[in-house]
Amino acid sequence: xxxxxxxxxxxxxxxxxxxxxxxxxxxxxxxxxxxxxxxxxxxxxxxxxxxxxxxxxxxxxxxxxxxxxxxxxxxxxxxxxxxxxxxxxxxxxxxxxxxxxxxxxxxxxxxxxxxxxxxxxxxxxxxxxxxxxxxxxxxxxxxxxxxxxxxxxxxxxxxxxxxxxxxxxxxxxxxxxxxxxxxxxxxxxxxxxxxxxxxxxxxxxxxxxxxxxxxxxxxxxxxxxxxxxxxxxxxxxxxxxxxxxxxxxxxxxxxxxxxxxxxxxxxxxxxxxxxxxxxxxxxxxxxx
Amino acid sequence: xxxxxxxxxxxxxxxxxxxxxxxxxxxxxxxxxxxxxxxxxxxxxxxxxxxxxxxxxxxxxxxxxxxxxxxxxxxxxxxxxxxxxxxxxxxxxxxxxxxxxxxxxxxxxxxxxxxxxxxxxxxxxxxxxxxxxxxxxxxxxxxxxxxxxxxxxxxxxxxxxxxxxxxxxxxxxxxxxxxxxxxxxxxxxxxxxxxxxxxxxxxxxxxxxxxxxxxxxxxxxxxxxxxxxxxxxxxxxxxxxxxxxxxxxxxxxxxxxxxxxxxxxxxxxxxxxxxxxxxxxxxxxxxxxxxxxxxxxxxxxxxxxxxxxxxxxxxxxxxxxxxxxxxxxxxxxxxxxxxxxxxxxxxxxxxxxxxxxxxxxxx
Lengths: 288, 363
What we know:
The complex is a heterodimer of chains A (about 290) and B (about 375). Chain A is mainly alpha-helical. Chain A has a single domain (about 60-285), classed as MetI-like (MetI-like fold, Orthogonal Bundle). Chain A is about 70% helix and about 0% strand. Chain A has helices at about 15-35, 50-60, 60-90, 95-105, 115-125, 130-135, 150-175, 180-190, 195-220, 225-230, 240-250, 255-285; strands at about 35-40, 45. In chain A, β1 (about 35-40) and β2 (about 45) form a beta hairpin. Chain A starts with 13 loop residues before the first helix and ends with a helix. Chain B has about 375 residues and is an alpha+beta fold. Chain B has helices spanning about 50-55, 80, 100-110, 115-125, 140-155, 175-190, 200-205, 225-230, 235-240, 360, and strands at about 5-10, 25-30, 35-40, 65-70, 70, 85, 160-165, 195-200, 210-215, 220-225, 245-250, 250-260, 265-270, 280, 285-290, 295, 300-305, 310-315, 320-325, 335-340, 345-350, 350-355. In chain B, the strands form 6 sheets. In chain B, strands 6-7-8-3-9-10 form a 6-stranded mixed β-sheet, with helices on both faces. The two termini of chain B are about 45 Å apart. Chains A and B meet through α8 and α9 of A and α3 and α5 of B. Chain A: InterPro entries: MetI-like, MetI-like_sf, Sugar_ABC_transporter. Chain A: This is ABC transporter permease.
């Protein structure tokens, strides 16, 4: 079939192209620009090659932050994905309670990040916070300001509280799409509860689980606001994750070159790990 | 394998049924003999599937009891009833191979792998999938998936009964015939009690020794295909079994004479007067086309030649009536009457067949 060719039609895309260039491409290019140049001030730049990238890769400080970041994301995924599935399996399938649960589950998702941070920052304070004070009264030595482990626990619990709903809601949607006949057939076949989960529910949830894992990975890997509000990256550097470190470097120390190289590497790491998750999970879908 | 008894069983999907029409299944008492091949026949929404799901335990009846043999299983969950059921639309475990799908019910019962392998091989042969056993079930055609579902239904040999809920709807016609034959063979071989739900009378009549016809939540008649053909207890049975179905014509009956649309018909027996809607039921096979003054006035509207016989479509009064004319028998010139065979003419009052007057029957 001959399609009419009219190259002037490209002009219609031009406004969008300009808009995207203005809002995304140019700022990104600025970052690339900074990443390969150095300056001694006065807005005079000279070529630095891959020097900044080398610096970032060699930096112990950034390596440590990356380690913390990977550990954090791993813990978050290990808790939120199974917990979300578990909650979804136990939510009522229909009726007034189903709607009630849906609203309840959606609530944490509606709260802005910095508000969530502030809530937990106050909640965990030993002097006035409900949680911190109660724990102290119970004789448990809890202090997220001084103790690295306590700070980690606080931030992880906060993230689980904030985001498990998302996983649960996605899984719930996946579960709702399973026809009744599957459960009936499983009863007829005398399948155990575990087998129903393994052979009916889990396969039907795979699509949404992929989305859930990707979203939770990317968000937790880029987490900034909540730990910044709660611990400010402390105590010491205990909760200084990559994004906090990056902001310190770019805005605090004004090291634009290394910070730009850092953000590009950061971006590539997220892209790479997301790609690995995607490949592994979709491959599993084919062979299972 | 066991006898299944339904005692005063009824079901409503409403929490507090009051009227008769609130019930999807009206109170019934019936027995399914051990080893019987039953067809449950009826139009959509008559309660067939409801009845089946109650027997398998997927539904708990609003009232009444279900007995397997002498054991009350009314409150027993499906898994403990050891019953097989095949649904209208295919259900396969996507992530398993065909082999694992077929083996699934056996493994759940804790059979050894040797027994499983042996049984799976037999069933695979039966459903014609022996050479695709190692394929993943995902991505197979609906046809193949339904065959797997059927196979899973037949794979256990110790089940109390096998229930089929219109299992061949998605299967193509050729395979349909073959699978039906396989089911019949399976029944002959193992003597499972089988209940086969369908709305296709050919399917019902070829599969079953006993046909149970349901209408509006009630079992209106249960019997051999021949009995259902010869003496339908309800006009629905007459209409549903046979092709075309039984003619039902409004009539007024005085003793052994029926007055229909200005004509008169002699009946084989005398009948008492009944209040209610009185109708004659005559199968198209038992109407003879004629010319003259005898019988019922008939106007032919269309003649269909279906090969081994012809079907005359026409009217008696305002009622549509079909007549079957056997091959080779001519349609008389100026045909304007049909004459019913008295021996095969039934009288219905409010859709239920009535027996002749008692004194007549004694005679």
